[in-house]
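Input/output pair, single chain:
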Amino acid sequence: MLERDTPEELPSDKLELKLFRKSPLGTRIDENCLSPLTTREILYQKRSQAKRMIKEKEELRSLANKSYTMEYSASPLRTVHMPFIKVSYKKNKKKNLDVNSSNSEVDEYLPTDDESHLFPEFCEVFWTRLDCVGWKPESSQQLSMVVVQNKVFLIGGISRSIIGDVNVFIPAYKRWEKIQTIGVESEPRFGHSTVEYKQKIYLFGGGTDFNAVHKLRECLNGVKVLNTENFEISNLKCSGSYITTRKQHCCAIVGKHMFIHGGMNQKNNLLDDASILNLEKSHWKLLSIKGLGPGYCGFHTAVTILHPSQKPASSIYKLPNLKKNQETHTGIYIFGGINRERKATNNLFLLKIGTKQLTWITPETKGTPPSPRFQHSMSYNEKLDILVIFGGRVDIVNTQHYTCFNDVFILRIQDWTWITIKVLGNVPTPRSGHASVSYGTKIYVFGGVGTSAYCSSNLYVLELNQKTARHLIEDEERRKAKELEVETMRTKRVEFQQEERKKGGFRNSE
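Output:
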């Protein structure tokens, strides 16, 4: 448990900042912040709080000196709030804690713009290219990423060859680690899906090696389970309906049910079926869904969105009841992909869940939606209640060429509004086939391929929190202004030296 520092222990000026970093609170903040900017912001906010509280104490003492008969309990200033960071015992026990994560006690303490519970209609987002420490995995496409206990797992993909590696990124330390798994061997795969359930990762489907005899690339329909505690991989023996081998499908999880839809078989024919896997019973069930859905579709994306009060959901068929008059747009959202005519789409579908009869609906959105695309990424940021779509590609009609995107689109879930965005910072190159995850108020993006080559193995972070993004933008503007100032001074120095040489040459000629 973090200690509550008294005002006297907090810094009162910049010279005491280094001393404060050594205190219990300062050390914890300094260790877990991803950037010096965040550290300074928190430390200076603490300093301001200390000054404010010390002033309140002085006012109390002043009032007491003026009238000893005055009852202390009658003073409106009798309550002095000590600065402290909310933290639970269980959270404090966890290692690799990141203050920018959704589980961060510091993030819970700081006031944010999203406390209004409605994301603004115009927003600024900021891209950062992370300078990771040490080794980085090889860049690839059609890979998967999933967050488990403040760690980002990266699995599979295709590059120079099909990849079967399991790699982990630790945001708190900005470091990649290559995992040596035990147990059964997991086939190298791409175009697969991964979900997290009870701190285990479930891998389904994907494409694998090329079969020279049948002249096609094999697809998988088995389920592998990765234990994130000991990194053991095991096969999940399933019963129930037969599930066709597939790749490039979409996948989401609701409670104990893993939902899959569509994709392509090993002959590259599109599929239109939907199934769920009960992860407790290892039982597949083919779904019959009411309404008009995506149909035959591949390279599309899916995410589950639940109201916070529905988080204990254990089944796709039953959700905890919401309070009266509480509006919600919960369910499984599916966007984009290619249809039966092999054309990219920008269709948005919502699978309404929580009843025995699942139903497709088409949300009536406002604003400007993304253009048609596939092989994009889509993430739900639970903290801000927004859907974030990045990148993707579209094929140029009657040619072998295609165009990749690096644009960002945000859908505000509360009223289904596409937000107007100003994108700043170190924007990633246009790409498709990449992977993304939501972590805290950020979106992490890795891999992908452009129109002519694979993208770099750099990890990009999109900051969505408006207050933090504004600080990053201001820092970037100051940095550019400083660079311009230095360049201007350098130019003036060179011009001055040239003038001096001319004057010296003129005097010598005389």
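DSSP finds six helices and 29 strands in the chain. Residues 1-12, 66-116 have pLDDT under 50 and may be disordered.
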